[in-house]
Amino acid sequence: MLFKNVSARFEIENSNSIDVILEHNGYEMVKKLQEFTPEQIIQEVEKSGLRGKGGGGALAGAKWRLLEKAKGKKYIVINADESEPGTFKDRSIIEKDPHLLIEGIILTAYALNSNDAFIYIRGEYQEQAKILQKAIDEAYEKGFLGDETIHKYNIHLTLHRGAGAYICGEKSALLESLEGKRGHPRLKPHTPSPEYFFNNPTLVNNVETIATIPSIIKNGSSFYKNLGVEPSCGSMLFGVSGHVNKPGIYECEFGVSMLDYINTLGGGVKGESIKAVITGGVSTGVIPFEIVKDIKLTYEDLRKAGSSLGTGGMIVMNESTCMVKALKNILSFYHDESCGQCTPCREGTFWVDATLDKFLDGSATLEDIEILKSNSKIMNGKTVCVFAPSVSTVIDSFLKYFQDEFIAKIKVDV
Amino acid sequence: MSGYTFSAENLKEIDKLLKRYPSKEALTLPILWMVQNDLGYLSNIALREASKILDMPTSHFYSVASFYTMFKFKKSEKVFVELCKSLSCELNNSDELYEYLKTRDDIELVRVECLGSCGSSPMCAINGKYHENLNIKKLDTILGDKDAL
Amino acid sequence: MVTIYVNNKPIICKDKELLIKVLKENDIFIPHFCYHESLGADGNCRMCLVEIEGSKRPQIACDTFVYDGLRVHTKSESILETNKDILELELLSHPVDCPTCDQAGECSLQNYYMEYGLYDSRVSVAKNKKDKALDLGSNIMLDQERCVLCMRCVRFCSDITKTDELVVMGRGNDSYITTTPFMRLSNPYAMNVIDLCPVGALTSKDFRFKQRVWFLDSTQSICHACSKNCSIFIDHNAQKNQNDHVHRFRPRVNTMVNGHFICDEGRLSYKKANETRKNDFIMKSRISTYESILKHTKKLLQSENAIALVSASLSVEQMLLVKELSEMYLFDVYYDYKEDEKFGDDFLKSSIKESNLYTAKLLDFKLVDKPYEESLISKSLILNFNSEFISKPRPIEMIEFLTHEGKFERSSSIFTYEYFHNDMGLLINSDGVISSYKKSSKVKSEKFTLLKILNDLLDESYTNESIYEKYKELFFKNIPYSKIMKQSQRLGL
């Protein structure tokens, strides 16, 4: 079931050292950079069917093309602000094969005619930042980065640390933060356009997305396109945590059964049985076992089940899990992390979080279920970014499948 | 009131970064990190110095810093423990660790959102360093070895 | 120009114009907190969500640009529900302390609540507490619990005054506005944040707890604190058995002069309107009657060798009648003015403190200087029209026309006349823009206007309009009076 593409070198000892990976085909494509034209690389990515692995799952090639067509000095920004509960895959790339990411960045920058790239890494990843910085320094020393590179393409790569704000994983908030501001998501453009970093057209891609590029260039787009189940092409660093015996990151082709994944790679449920699974980071909401058992890990299958693939980080909950407490945990997260810009999100996340407390301390009434539902409605589609709509997804899914547990917590007058 | 000076090494780093970013403003987070790494918190005097270097009003630094949970305006006098309270950790009994940590008065305890260790939960960061797959016994040992923290 | 349809009614407007601007200009009710004409859109409050045909989700009017055929609904059932729900969220942690809040009566939260609400509160969770009654400096009080975080005040200090005293701190619903540590609000325009604040978070220390705004009358007027002539509202009323009292000046939008703002000094100059002299007529140091002093003055004008000094803050009409008088009795008219470089800036504060210097020059009045002092020697009568620069070098007959207490109290003859806040007139500012200030229809004047006194001295019966019309071709580029009454007009420099 395992399919090691991005994670191919993860098991090698000291795989984050440049000397080690150079013995394992490290920077192979970068060394051959001049054999490709930028357009060839873009076309390979377009043809590969590669989709962004930060959660949205949009086609990477289309996003690249927007930048390619834009005028002016261009920037590449790598989103390593991995903060979605249940998600820890980018961390594994950074820790175990940072040079793969750097190689992907060089290929991307070359393809899109950019000489400046940044990696925005969440502030809490201090050890990971050190590993990454060391890898960047090594890449400079070996002539893969800098003004005079062995591949004849000048590129600078700068590591930029965040400082504790989930919302900075949202690409426009990330750019605001990179610009030195508070991480408030930006109003969305009215026509398709790339992102902007100080008015310069910019590509923002997830770590795993960019780390996939070298393998696509090396093996050709058809290699990647043939993996998985079209239109969910390729493989992904799925992760599993919560009530499982072997939590971790395991790369698979798209299309494997969720249940098989949990039982085989995740070592099976800890406890009696699977009650529910958060499908790909908490923002994708929850699905009960009855649905889990038939799900294949593709964007389309999860969409059909009313959820989404998200970051591929599954959280398994066994039969002992209190769904009210689980929802409280997630809503408290959103309350803590709302940037506070838009009223529905700023106040709504506070209200639903406080309302969940009422369920847990026994003071909730039937009206509180309505309050959760009406807040879910007002948070959906009325804000600048998709943070608040995610809260709606979560609330709706919990109430859809586990409303009984909430009703059971309601105060009964005696 | 004595002033604050950025170290020669930091000034050199600032010079380097100024060439990398399209605008000075982008150095806000890097410069805040320099101050915090140096002092353990963001002092008013240091922020004033930062405002001079980047030619930005001090208000900017306060407002920006207060947005991010990792920046501190006060120094932690004790061992700083950030206990992850996110779902995977909670499912793996982080509450138990919380109850235990609450009883210790030799630490400054905060419960933080997901630190990206769901696969090795429960966990906490002690003075910024991750400690994973924890239980009370393990935590007790780690906190007992003050020199290693 | 394009045609858009709002609630199925066509509106013709400029292509690519901001929708919220079009709605407001066409008096279509559109609730909003963060958008402000002077600050632009920020998109944070989400109050201005509208339904756009063909768009899946509601869109904010402050980030929608119009195009031909755009169809907008502001009153559909779903939009009304959305607006109401967002309003409910704005009020979630609000203390709902309208009975003790100074903003009551001019509060957007309150107005929208009346528009949408009248619902019983569903809130059964504890409110998020924040700080109250913080003195930020410059007469500004902050109540963080009433704040809707629209950021108008912060944006004003960063974008307009560029003084950056205000910041938003924290995140999420713990965000709050405050002054930057170690700073106080201390720019000369600071009090504008009170008007910009759509709710009761920022209130004026100078005004608060003094009056309920619904007891106030507002009169369209012009600030007389410098030669910029900022448009203002005078908010005033008369308490039982008392004279009319001015409670505050507020900026009145005038894109040709002051935009949306006024300076704090101008704003607080309302106090001068409450310090006018009592309604009296003095002749040779004794209380007299209007008729006696009028007769006395006419006699002196015929017999004596006169000279006149006018304040360069007199209105256009007042100056024109002084000019008529000077031509009838053949005397020279002088003016003087103060230049305060420290006061002036390149925004709204002019270093010239007289509000109508332009007209004094236009009418060819003479600047007080050496020849004035020299010519005084041969004069036997000084007429002073409210000038503060008057000197009385030797015992000499003097007739003064005053609004406030003068220097030579009781040593000369005095006509007391109505100060500008209870009068009407025209002023021309230092940029050559002519504007009108109005007289409240609700205030019963006790004092005579200077126009009336001058008419009586001239045995004429000019109105503000007729005296202006008489000279409009000669001095005022033929701009009709009625046009100026509608809005300011540019004469040019």
Q: What characteristics describe this protein?
A:
heterotrimer; B: 149 residues; alpha+beta; Arc Repressor Mutant, subunit A; Glutaredoxin; 2 domains; 4-stranded mixed β-sheet; 7 helices; 12% strand; elongated; C: 493 residues; alpha/beta; Ubiquitin-like (UB roll); Alpha-Beta Plaits; Rossmann fold; 3 domains; 8-stranded mixed β-sheet; 5-stranded mixed β-sheet; 24% helix
Mean pLDDT of chain B: 95
CATH topology of the largest domain in chain A: Rossmann fold
Q: What would you report as the Rg of chain B, rounded to the nearest angstrom?
A: 18 Å
Any guess at the CATH architecture of the largest domain in chain B? 3-Layer(aba) Sandwich
Topology overview:
The complex is a heterotrimer of chains A (414), B (149) and C (493).
Chain A: H1 18-22, H2 28-31, H3 38-48, H4 60-69, E1 75-80, H5 89-96, H6 98-111, E2 116-121, H7 126-141, E3 156-161, H8 171-178, E4 195-197, E5 200-206, H9 207-219, H10 221-225, E6 228-229, E7 232-233, E8 235-242, E9 248-253, H11 258-265, E10 274-278, E11 286-288, H12 289-292, H13 299-304, E12 313-318, H14 323-337, H15 343-360, H16 366-379, H17 387-408
Parallel strand pairs in A: 1-2, 1-5, 2-3, 8-12
Antiparallel strand pairs in A: 4-5, 6-7, 8-9, 10-11, 10-12
Chain B: H1 8-20, H2 28-39, H3 44-54, H4 58-67, E1 79-84, H5 87-91, H6 94-102, E2 107-112, E3 124-126, E4 129-131, H7 136-144
Parallel strand pairs in B: 1-2
Antiparallel strand pairs in B: 1-3, 3-4
Helix pairs in contact in B: 2-3, 3-4
Chain C: E1 2-6, E2 9-13, H1 19-25, E3 49-52, E4 59-60, E5 71-73, H2 77-90, H3 108-116, E6 134-137, E7 140-142, H4 152-160, E8 166-169, E9 176-179, H5 192-196, E10 202-204, E11 217-222, E12 231-238, E13 244-251, H6 264-268, E14 281-283, E15 286-287, H7 290-303, E16 306-311, H8 316-329, E17 332-336, H9 357-362, E18 366-367, H10 370-376, E19 381-385, E20 397-402, E21 413-416, E22 425-428, E23 433-437, H11 450-458, H12 464-475, H13 481-486, E24 489-490
Parallel strand pairs in C: 1-5, 16-17, 16-19, 17-18, 19-20, 20-21
Antiparallel strand pairs in C: 1-2, 3-4, 3-5, 6-7, 7-10, 8-9, 11-12, 12-13, 14-15, 14-21, 22-23, 23-24
Helix pairs in contact in C: 2-3, 8-11, 8-12
